[in-house]
From TrEMBL:
UniProt cross-references to Pfam families, sorted A to Z: Ala_racemase_C (PF00842), Ala_racemase_N (PF01168)
Gene3D superfamilies attached to this UniProt entry: Alanine racemase (3.20.20.10), Lyase, Ornithine Decarboxylase, Chain A, domain 1 (2.40.37.10)
A cellular-component GO term for this protein: cytosol
PANTHER family: ALANINE RACEMASE, ALANINE RACEMASE, CATABOLIC-RELATED
Pathway it works in: Amino-acid biosynthesis; D-alanine biosynthesis; D-alanine from L-alanine: step 1/1
Catalysis: reaction(s): L-alanine = D-alanine
Protein's recorded name: Alanine racemase
């Protein structure tokens, strides 16, 4: 992690770190640097920031504050409550709510200074009706589905909407957007198809800013940056180009405290259901972290697992595999191959950091880095670096 001013969330400082089972370190300078790098890649397009899911687990308030200081002026959240939190930290920013407009919520959105991303005709109708009562247009984004089949107006509904704009009072379409299905797989034909479909959508809404790119979309050869890009995962250190070197700086590190070291005889089983058996001379370190802290139970170290699966901790820089099933509050680690006495109660072992980057940790649990990030536990002591 980088150096710089250190901030503590939820108070407590050094004492909170001493008492907590694990320490999550969050480098806000790296977060800001990642945004600046993506903004440079976007060239003339505006670079927004997706801060949904508590800013992918690192905390909306510190993340939005750091990104706003770096120059970010537009934020995307999933839920209105997240938008209220972002708005409180960046009162001059534009905040879009990706999950649309809940029925009857138009007034609350306006009061909170939030812009809905409208993705269904009923949402469009409600926003139009509310705009009429206000005596003037209200800004909102419109989401057009180009292949995800999840949220958004159909292409046919988009054509109806485009015609409707000319027929009378209407809201201000501040942004027209869609979402890429497989941007992290550059050779997938769906990318080209979606870009072509979205070009047709843009023609329906001339002079309206357009947005298609997520984190990986910024790295597609076609570079469809348009007017605004919406990175999320890459901001937080995730690799937007799987299978290639990660161009982003790491943002988080996670280290858990050793609370016991013990020996196990050959054949002794470790953990629930006895799914891991010790070899001769085995030493086990138990660390104060578990699936209640966001470490996937699927990362358990059990006998017979294929190579490359099962969690790993770095103990004084040495990779040591998880031993047995991860429990709610504890993980057992096989430290047999470390030097005698090298692992002591009170030491911290690394669960995320260095060679154990998000992609590696996720792959060993059979999941994706997005899930690792957004599951970061609330019991961790959190140390924020930089952000001044």
């Amino acid at each position: 992690m980088g150096s710089g001013e250190t901030m503590q969330q939820d108070g407590g400082g050094a004492e909170a770190e001493q008492l907590a089972g694990a320490l999550l370190t969050i480098d806000l300078d790296a977060l800001a640097a990642n945004w600046r790098a993506l903004a440079a890649r976007a060239a003339e397009a505006e670079c927004a920031a997706v801060v949904k899911a508590d800013a992918y687990g690192i905390g909306i308030e510190p993340a939005v504050a750091a990104l706003a200081r770096a120059g970010c002026q537009t934020f995307f959240v999933a839920h209105p409550g997240e938008g209220v939190r972002a708005r409180a930290v960046a009162p001059g920013a534009t905040v879009y709510v990706l999950n649309g407009l809940p029925p009857g919520a138009a007034g609350a959105f306006v009061s909170a200074g939030l812009r809905p991303v409208l993705g269904a005709p009923a949402e469009v109708d409600e926003w139009c009706e509310f705009a009429a009562t206000r005596g003037g247009p209200l800004p909102a984004a419109v989401h057009i589905d180009t292949g995800m089949n999840r949220l958004g107006l159909t292409l046919a509904e988009a054509r109806v909407l485009a015609a409707r704009r000319t027929e009378g009072p209407f809201f201000q379409i501040a942004l027209v957007m869609s979402h890429l299905v497989a941007a992290e797989e550059a050779d997938r034909p769906i990318n080209r198809l979606q870009i072509e479909r979205f070009a047709a959508v843009r023609a329906l809404f001339p002079r309206v800013p357009a947005s298609l790119c997520n984190s990986s979309g910024l790295f597609l050869p076609q570079s469809p940056c348009l007017d605004l890009v919406r990175p999320g995962y890459a901001l937080y250190g995730g690799n937007p180009t799987p299978g290639q070197p990660n161009p982003m700086r790491p943002v988080i590190g996670l280290a858990a405290r050793v609370i016991q070291v013990r020996e196990a005889a050959a054949g002794d089983t470790v953990g629930y259901n006895g799914r891991w058996a010790a070899r001769a001379g085995c030493r086990i370190a138990t660390i104060s972290c578990g699936y209640a802290d966001g470490i996937p139970r699927a990362a358990s170290g059990t006998d017979g697992r294929p190579a490359g699966l099962g969690g790993v901790a770095l103990v004084n820089g040495q990779p040591c595999p998880f031993a047995g099933v991860i429990s709610m509050d504890l993980i057992t680690v096989d430290v047999t191959d470390t030097p005698p006495g090298a692992v002591k109660v009170g030491d911290r072992v690394t669960l995320i950091g260095g060679p154990l980057d998000l992609e590696t940790v996720a792959a060993r649990a059979g999941t994706i880095g997005y899930e690792i990030l957004t599951s970061l536990g609330r019991r961790y002591a959190r140390r924020y670096l930089g952000g001044a």
